[in-house]
Amino acid sequence: MKQLLILSGKGGTGKTTVASAFIKLSEAKAYADCDVDAPNLHLVTKYKKCPEVNDYYGMKKAEINIVKCIECGLCVENCRFDAIGKNYIINSYECEGCGVCEYICPSSAITMKDFKAGDLMLYKDDTVFSTAELKMGSGNSGKLVSEVKKQLRENTKADFAVIDGSPGIGCPVIASISGVNMILIVAEPSVSGVSDMERIIETARTFKTKIAVCINKYDINEEICDIIKQYCKNNNIELTGKIPFDMKAVEAINNGVTIVDIDCAAKQAVQEVYNNTIKILNKQE
To answer: Model pTM greater than 0.70?
Structure first.
């Protein structure tokens, strides 16, 4: 299965807008949302059936048996994360699962237990959509992304999948990149947008995966847009096209539909970006 991953160096560039348009244009039978901290691709998928939901367990958390606890205070003194209160109740948001308290407890009152860190969700009808949502304050986002991609592979025989990745360059992005055939980076023409684009390109290149760039809202600053184009040229990165800022596109997103579901300038531009991206994806073979 060929996997096209859509990334951005920062949030708010229009990554999910482009991903949802690609899903519609390609009539993809398999797709995933790997932005597990704040998934939103489901808002435009329009599934009528509820998803299959499975608990996702990340790192273990400490739990104190109050009956066994002798209130010696050793756990409170030695917890470097200040996760244990004076009443010997553990704050799960503060606990990092290091296990020091369990090791040091003289009465064996503390045990490390599985802790639900989020939900893994699978939508299925004539298409398969894999996604997940991490609970607030939970870690192991990279591991959860890997589970999202694994769930997608195991539940479809489609030959092509669109994956909406996470913003930034952290663990969930690295897990998203692993095993994909091509990465399309959505950049925006702003000072921070250029800097973040450069960081994600540098990160993606370590995987030796084909990379291309498209520019979203290019007309909000055409001077910086030219800087992005020159950067791509200097670094031998293919530019698949430019998408204008379009208020109709904003209205479409607010109404829960993709930009290719309405007639607007952004629709025509993203069609060209899609065609060029697929050519590059197929050419790399």
So the answer is: yes
